[in-house]
Amino acid sequence: MSFLLAAWSLTGTVSAVEAPAKTSVKNPFEGKPEAIKEGEKIFDAKCSECHMDGTGGAGPNLTDDTWIYGGSDAEVFETISYGRKGGMPSWKSELGADNIWKVIAFIRSIAYKK
After folding, report:
1. Per-residue pLDDT tens for 40-56?
2. Closest C-alpha to 109, from 48, 44, 62
C-alpha cells in the first residue's frame, strides 16, 4: 500500500512521488528482548522526565491505545524523530534511527494489553 506525497522542487513546482504508507513500516526491533532492554535504558535517560514510567506526566500516556498523532510504528517514529508542537522535542540527531526504534520496542512492551 502506498500514497502520494507532494514534493517541492527548487523551482517551486510540486510533483507527486510514491512513498510507503505510514502503517506499512514495521519496527525492526519489535519483540527482541535485548533491543527492548536497550530501549528501556534510553527511555529512562531521555523520555521519563516527561512520560514518567510511560503512563504520562508532562507528556502523554504511552501505555494506552490513544495516540494524538497516530499510533503506528511509523507515526510514533516520526513523532520521536521530529518532535511535535507543544513540548515534544526532536530526538533524531541525538538518538539516531536504531535507538528510536528500540525506544518504540520498549514502549510497545509496556503498553496496556486489553
Report:
1. 999 999 999 999 999 99
2. 62
Closest C-alpha to 103, from 21, 22, 46:
46
Indicate the SS3 state at residue 56: coil
Q: Could you report the per-residue pLDDT of 12-46, keeping only the tens digit for each?
A: 443 343 334 556 788 999 999 999 999 999 999 99
Residue written as grid cell 491505545: 65
pTM of the full structure: 0.78
Q: How far apart are the C-alpha atoms of 80 and 113, rounded to whole Å?
A: 22
Residues in the chain: 114
Helices and strands, number each (H, E), in the chain: 4, 2
